[in-house]
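retry 2 of 3: previous attempt timed out while embedding pyridoxal-5'-phosphate. Reduced batch size to 1 and resubmitted. Inputs unchanged:
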Amino acid sequence: MRKINFSAGPTGLPLSVLEHAKTEFTDYKGEGYSIMEISHRSKTYEEVHFGAMDKIRKLYGIGDEYEILFLQGGAHLQFAMIPLNLSQNGVSEYANTGVWTDKAIKEAANLGINHKVVASSEASNFDHIPDVKFSDDADFAYICSNNTIYGTQYKSLPKTKAPLVIDASSDFFSEPLDFTNIGILYGGAQKNAGPSGVTIVIIRKDLLERTPKPHTPTMLKFKTHADAKSLYNTPPTFAIYLLDLTMQWVLDQGGLNGIKAINAQKAAAIYDAIDNSGGFYKGHAQKDSRSVMNISFNIKDSNLEPIFVADALKNDMLGLKGHRHLGGIRASIYNAVSLNDVKTLVNFMNDFAKKHG
Ligand SMILES: *Cc1c(COP(=O)(O)O)cnc(C)c1O
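retry 2 succeeded.
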């Protein structure tokens, strides 16, 4: 039996996606080979590759002014690629909302990039999204839209004329986005879009004309991959195949508007359980910064937290242990987690509070 998967990533994929892949695993569409067993230059693979890009365009409603790249190295490599390609003679500005932006900032420092941290919520252990004001003439303005560990999320994007660069690893494809001022939207696929192994980078084309820092390796230039349609070297073909199936699944859910409505109900159900627990559960994020994707919380008596996680597992609910930086409990409720799955967790939370409260 499949468990209900509340892991932060990699995590569950929609069952129908896995079942579909299973039917084609050894024989893709009657071709006599698996999709992972043929050249990335073949027509068969190209259809998958460009099909996945088309679906991403359709979901976000983005046109020709953006290029979609399929890269490797995870979100982590973007911490370096972004400043190497985008930093010019000005300042690269960052908002620090937790471990993932902190790592990006440290990488900019490591590369000797002229950068500045314009806002931070570190003083309160990243429990909210701070007021963020970027300079309009910054080389770029960097944020992480959803902070996977702390369960905080921007409710609206900061206004700036500088190209906004967004690490959306954990809230990619969870709701529609207005792309005005977005220069780059990127993330690893393994949280909301597919398996690990492929990083999706949506980049505004004018940014491809910037001059990368001297000695930037060919493989780390966005232009290399844009010019080659992400076929410069061998892409992770099987991961992109599963990404394509997952994007089709999102379209089948009514696209990003459909998904957003379901995600809102899921998050509300868990936050209600926390808020109505009479103080038994306490959410980490301040209310106006609450994430719809990751919900981090504590139990009043922290000794009960490992018992909660173990009991949940006995009830076939996986991945509820909080991140090592924060401890406690975290429920990651990405697109593939259904409203019914969430209701099962909420019932468990209510029963647990009654039993131990
Ligand atoms: C998981 C995560 C990362 C790290 O992703 P990798 O693909 O492992 O490099 C970066 N940023 C955010 C917001 C994440 O959730």
